[in-house]
């Protein structure tokens, strides 16, 4: 009878196995899949109890699902057994294919290990294949059919027929364990994909929020902002500008995209811009406005990569510093110019004069030519007199010179013999009769006279010449490229410009002027140059009669 019914039993079991496997693939989550694995054992394979032990990332196995007994489920679900204890169990007993059966005669040694277990007491088996309550049957689940990494272990207990499973029951359990491993792997993959999708969506949301925050910060920033290209044929071209920058430069955004900052910067500031744009940094320079004027701005550049390997852009913050710069220039002007007349003051005069002379006296033209030839052909001693030091020479350098001296020496013409030499004339001017004007008419009139004298002196010199006020009624004129006769003619023109009456508050007053002509020359100090011109002025003042110097 049993032989005749065996095919029908197998067919029924096959249908139940098929349904259990189908249920595995409909679970929505990893937890549902694990519970479906345990439920399928009880509902489809004829066991009263089933437990799914899942391998955790650190290697131990946790009871992830239980079916068949609510009390046992509440007691042991979530408990953990060590990997070593499980490895021991899977190496004991009898191997039924990929299954591992540990009979009660051997399993008693496992009662005290750390693997959570549930069992009931029962009588001794009455026949050979009867199931004992302490029998253990495990179905390992591997990541692949070829024996990959262990995913978990299904443990079953108490077959409903009370017998150990036969060949067909073992095969069915092995097949189910294999399908359960696939279902668990797929569930893990889906879970990982879902987590990855959630993480990606969150990152995209964060990116969109960041982009929106940047857009608003960029567009509505109170100071100018711009994004420019870096590299390629369009290096420096403006890709995007905000409203504040467009208002600052008086150009709409559509027009701004035609330019780069190099097109807008003041010609004198192009070097500063190029150095700043290379790898980011900060600079102060002038940018042109639509009306042709220039505006002082502070540029702060940051290099930004679009993606990990994408093109780089230059994010530029443009701040209007016109007012501060005007204030700084005004302070610098006040520090270097006379408050009353607006002329360069004594400190500025000495600075300009110092820039033209060096400590080393200039040699004669003939000697210079000879020494230049000697230097070219290796005459070290002669070369050193001009500040040149050949490679390997460690001797003392000439004071005021350097290894490579490109200074153009200032020479003084010979006042006795006009040989065509041009030099830097220093005309020291002292007003005659100014003290009497101050005493008679007051400082208000004296100040007005000084202002008018400064104006007249400035109108009589060339662009590039310097008219400075030393203090009191003393002025100095620096005029380059003059011979001795030229300097004398200039002094006469300046004196004649000062002599005409000066009207102050309806009153005409007169002042005279005495001029001393000195020459700036390398080898002299600034004080020596001014003292020489001052001394010659006093010689000239004493040489003229008091009548010629009278004014008032």
Automatic annotation (TrEMBL):
Pfam families documented for this protein: GAF (PF01590), GGDEF (PF00990), PAS (PF00989)
Residues in PAS domain copies: 210-269
Ranges where the PAC domain occurs: 281-333
CDD domains hit by this protein: GGDEF (cd01949), PAS (cd00130)
Domain named GGDEF: residues: 422-552
Recorded coiled-coil stretches: 186-213
Keyword terms of this UniProt record: Coiled coil
Keyword Coiled coil belongs to the record: yes
Name of the protein described by the UniProt record: Diguanylate cyclase
